[in-house]
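Researcher: Here's my situation. A collaborator sent me these components and asked whether they could plausibly form a single complex. I don't have experimental data yet, so a predicted model of the whole assembly would be a useful starting point for our discussion.
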Amino acid sequence: MTVTETDRPAEIGSEPGSETGTLTVEVWRGKDDGRFQSFTVPHRANQTVLDIVTWIQRHAEPALAYRFACRVGVCGSCAMTVNGKPRWTCRTHVGKVAEDGHLRIEPLRNLPRLKDLAVDMTPFFEKWQAAEGRFHPTKTRHDPLSTISPSSAKRKAADAGIECINCGVCHAACDVVAWNDDYLGPAALNRAWTLVNDERDGGKRTGLDAVSRSGGCHSCHSHGSCVEHCPVGLNPTRGIAGLKRMSLVGLLTGDAG
Amino acid sequence: MRLRPSRNHPGFWAFTAHRISGVALALFLPVHFLLLGTAMEGAAGLDRALALTDNPLVKVAEWGLVVLLAAHLMAGLRVLILEFLPWRDSMKRLIALGAAVAAVVGVIFLVQVG
Amino acid sequence: MIEVRLYAAQRLSAMVLAPLVIAHLILILLAVEGGLTAAEILDRTRGSVGWALFYGVFVLAAAIHAPIGLRNVIREHTSWRGEVVDKAMIGLGILLFMLGGRAVLAVVVG
């Protein structure tokens, strides 16, 4: 389907910019039993994959379902599969991922499809909770603030994993998530790792138990696909290895099991 | 079948080698033990079992198992290093080194047999 | 917790196996030169406490290591789940230990 540009004012997905030909974009339509629909989209300088999806929805297929919010790589809601790899689409330049002017955009893997490019993130966040991925306070507002040295080993370990934006890219990239329904996944385990290293968190025992059940940290086989694809450069594999070590120490010292 | 692009990185290849070699070795172990068990009947019994390797197909399988054992060892060392030693970003070079060691073991075996 | 225990058994057996496998590989590469004979093998192993220990530990560690690995493979690549897999793997471990133990006896004692 070829669509010509209208003379609407500039808006998301049609920022002014030099047009440099067209792209052939295949977009997944429907749910599990859907199909690819092909669009011809004008290619502009500095165009992101999210710009492409938005252009299609504004100019060619108003019924296209997809999810985005901030457009600047903070909210973690626009992840999709682009030419086979999970990516944050708002910070992915078309020029870097298009192959011969061709893009194939699909919903994220390993999560239930809702419609077109939107997936149901519920299982992702349920696993986050199952991994005890939440802070367990030990103080009240009347207590003095904790003093945590930023240079302590534990704080450094926590800091290294704290910038997760919950985009689900690692979850979609992980083979073990695909193979084992119980597996908590790299994002949830990375969060658990930051918490067991947080000196203020009061849930370390429950946290370590939560990631030691079937489908916990021991299910990770260190493929490292999460590290390869994390858009903000986190290393869940390293954190999960830390959880494994911690659980082993717990077992050998009689602190767990 | 086309390889899924998100899988095309050394860590995935190391895992794949680890898994395939592991399954093959686990299946081979009982056979290995049964063949060695023929030494119960003395050297003659074991020699009859060893004569199986005169078959070129068995020879190739034997070579394959030696390479798989080396590959499983190196992939296993990767996991142990990754989990029990301080993190290093040079894991990908270690994977290449492991593959090279497995290949060298295969070549030496061929030279020695030939 | 069972997962932690299996993980510990898997990694500890791997740490035992790693040096043994290295020695085994070196031995294979040295021994295959000019073909293997039973006399060569049995001359080395018969009556040797050292080789009995080497292969005894080897068999025990492998009998622990292989079933735990296969358990992961089965759970991840087949629809086979639950206690029946665990029982089958315990059975495999015992089988490997008995067959391996018999092989060690065969080459050491005869």
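Model: Some features of this prediction you could bring to your collaborator: Chain B touches chain C at residues 19, 22-23, 25-26, 29-30, 32-34, 36-40, 42-47, 50, 53, 66, 69-70, 72-73, 76-77, 79-80, 83-84, 105, 108-109, 112-113 (CB under 8 Å). Chain B has one domain: 13-113.
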